[in-house]
Amino acid sequence: MEPNGILIYAQTDDDNRIEPVVKELLTKACSLKEKIWNQRIMACVIGERINYEEMIKELGAYGADEVIIVSDNRLKTYNKTYYSEIFTQIAKNHPPRIILIGATSQGKDIAAYVSTKLETGLTADCTDLDIGEANLLLSTRPTFGGQLTADILCKTFPQMATVQQNIFKAEKIDKTAVAKFDWIDIDKIENKIEVINRVVKKNSSENIANADIIVAGGLGACRDNGFALIHELARKLNASVAGTRVAFEKGYILKSQQVGQSGKIVAPKVYIAVGISGADQQLVGIKNSGKIIVINNDKNAPIFKYADIGIVGDLFKVLPELIKEVDKDKEV
Amino acid sequence: MNIAVFIKQVPDTTDVKWTVNNNIDRTKMDSVINPVDKEAIEAALRIKEQLDAKVTVVTMGPKKAEDVLKEAVAMGVDDAFLLCDSKFAGSDTLATSKVLSASIKELLPDTKLIIFGQSAQDGETGQTGPCVAARLNLPSVGHVSEIVEITEEKITVVSETDKEKITLNVTLPAVLCIYNYVYPPRIPRVCGYVKAQDYNYVTYNMYDINVMDSETGLKGSPTYVSKVFKCNDTRNGMLFDAGETSVSEIYQEIKKVL
Ligand SMILES: Cc1cc2nc3c(=O)[nH]c(=O)nc-3n(C[C@H](O)[C@H](O)[C@H](O)COP(=O)(O)OP(=O)(O)OC[C@H]3O[C@@H](n4cnc5c(N)ncnc54)[C@H](O)[C@@H]3O)c2cc1C
Fold it and tell me: From the centroid of its chain, how far is CA A313?
């Protein structure tokens, strides 16, 4: 079978809602599809569901041509062994040219397994996707040093990529999808992992992916009272606190507060970057922000090219004054 | 019980050198042990303190990757060897996972537990562990924040992400990826360093682990870099010098966007 189409893993949450990243990938898939002749978009849902009609309608509304459904009562909650093997078999039954998966921890599990079983290439945490020479998938991602970006091609099929939430924008289109129910012999899958306890964490205050205003700190703030000032400013602005990977490595923020390629992609109205140099891995995470305000004492820091308002200055002097201004403003 | 820990040497500087194929030229860079891989070693050593276990550390890389093996031996592991072949150079995740899983099959066939760090600082993909597991048909658990219990047959672990915390029973043999900051690595003692200096680090090449030319390195890697470029996006915003303009004046601009 000649590989055809773009297969998307339609991850759902505990309440059977489609994850936002799936809709974003569908929208992107629509634009990729236009560039290659005669392709279809398939979305694969795995789980135990009652209301499929709604699911099919919704996936269709974002661009899916076909919705492939695998349903079994053993699939009620995510199980890595079952889900990975099932998705692999789907990819074998409907060989696609391209597989796109959201870079959630679940998506990454599945992507690694599928690429190994299909002996094909996988590019992780892409920051852009396009169709390049010979109709191949062009996956973009920052390179190690953080000052350069690389376009990556894959010489085997399917070409696989994972993408974080918020990299692409989801757009509804007027379309309907057809359903296909696939039967997979789950009894044949040997499950060696038994879940004995599962605690779902409540969406805590530090959910930066949906924050309106973010104050983020980098290495420059990782000393003395740098992060205390960041927290104070954030409190006054009703903002969330975030940081760079270095700030995470130094223990000033949690992993869930890390912004960037290997953290979260954010899109607040205002992003205030304090003591952050602006490596590409950081910049890809803040590109979609409304306004970016930068405080850095090195006027040559690459982050300034992304600034709507740039302040060249020492954060330990600028932040206390800024906090005072916010206070004054609040009084009147 | 035999435990294998895979570690990676990562470049110590951001001063990157590139090969003509747009791959990072690791021969020209100082390398250190990927920080979370030390925690993987620590996790293995703690199991060794409880059970009768032999811990072997393995890395794939150029000859000088021996340095990171030294550090592992200094920490107290029983054996450490290097997978080194010029044909391995330029391997992507798929090709790397082939080499690593072949080393288990050929050199450490009775391994019960394989431990990785969650991800490498220079790639952050976190795929190598799960890919090796898939290749060996073993169960794998990522984001491991605690090893609760281990017997010869099974291991109980906690896997924690920002969404959930799951406790799992996994049948051995299995693959674990240890999360950052859960097993602070021990500092080697002087006698550890002495042992590491004199240790005989065996090197295995492609033939020793039965890997074919076409399966590894650039040849065996389906993904390749087609182009490297500088991202030239800019926002052309306003720029103030806090030495010249007062923060209160700058704040008038900030206010407009808040
Ligand atoms: C595979 C991979 C994935 C990565 N993923 C991410 C990611 O998701 N997110 C991320 O952020 N990084 C990521 N990185 C790391 C990235 O390459 C950079 O190393 C990192 O973003 C730099 O963090 P920083 O800006 O805090 O530190 P630095 O680059 O050290 O910058 C610190 C800045 O603070 C400024 N400064 C110092 N003192 C002061 C002061 N008193 N007042 C004002 N300014 C001051 C300095 O001028 C400097 O510009 C990744 C790297 C790799 C290889």
Answer: 33
**Mean pLDDT of the B89-112 span:** 97
Q: Where are the alpha helices (DSSP H) in A183-294?
A: 226-237, 245-249, 280-286
Query: Hey, CA dihedral for A251, A252, A257, A260, is it positive or negative?
Result: negative
Which residues of chain A does B230 touch, with a Cβ-Cβ cutoff of 8 Å?
147-149
Residue A91: what residue type?
Answer: A
The model's pTM is: 0.93
Q: Is A105–B231 a contact, with Cβ atoms under 8 angstroms apart?
A: no
Confidence of residue B23 (pLDDT cuts 50, 70, 90): low
pLDDT 10s digits, A176-209: 999 888 889 999 999 999 999 999 987 654 589 8
How confident is residue B27, by pLDDT bands cut at 50, 70 and 90?
low
Q: Is the CB of A88 under 6 A from ligand 1?
A: no
Residue B80 has a pLDDT of 98
User: Tell me, what amino acid is at A316?
Assistant: F
CB-based contact, A223 to chain B, within 8 Å: no
Domains and CATH numbers, chain A: 6-188 (3.40.50.620), 208-331 (3.40.50.1220)
Mean pLDDT, residues B233-255 taken together? 94
Ligand 1 centroid to residue A285 C-alpha, Å: 12
- pLDDT of A1: 74
Residue with tokens 């950052």: B180
Q: For tokens 């990729």, what's the residue?
A: A32
In a mutagenesis test of the A interface, which of B36, B113, B125 is the best target, namely the one with the most A β-carbons within 10 Å?
B125
Residue A87, C-beta contacts closer than 8 angstroms, at least 6 positions apart? A9, A44, A46, A110, A113, A114
- Contact call for B223 and A317, based on CB within 8 A: no
The best mutation among A214, A276, A284, A317 to test binding of ligand 1, ranked by most ligand atoms within 8 Å of the C-beta, falls on A276
pLDDT for B114-145, tens place per residue?
999 999 998 899 999 999 999 999 999 999 99
Per the CB < 8 A criterion, the answer to whether A4 and A96 are in contact is yes
Enter the tokens of residue B223: 């993904």
Q: Distance between CA atoms of A276 and A247, rounded to whole angstroms?
A: 10
Question: Which A residues 254-293 touch B at CB under 8 Å?
Answer: 254-256, 261-262, 269-270, 280, 283, 287, 290-293
Measured CA angle at B98 (ends B96, B100), to 5 deg? 70
Residue linked to tokens 């984001």 = B143
| Arithmetic mean of pLDDT, B18-30 | 60
Partner-chain contact B169 A196, CB within 8 Å: yes
What integer best gives the mean pLDDT of chain A? 94
Is CATH 3.40.50.620 correct for B2-224?
Answer: yes
Q: Do residue B181 and residue A193 have CB atoms under 8 angstroms apart?
A: no
Query: pLDDT for A203-215, tens place per residue?
Result: 654 589 889 999 9
Write phi, then psi, for A41 (nearest 5 degrees): -110, 125
Determine the distance from the C-alpha atom of residue A121 to the mean position of all C-alpha atoms in its chain, rounded to a whole number. Answer: 19
Complex ipTM more than 0.85, yes or no: yes
Output the pLDDT for position A206.
56
B43-53 pLDDT, tens digit each: 999 999 999 99
Residues paired with residue B131 on neighbouring β-strands, in sequence order? none
Q: Domains of chain B: which residue ranges?
A: 2-224
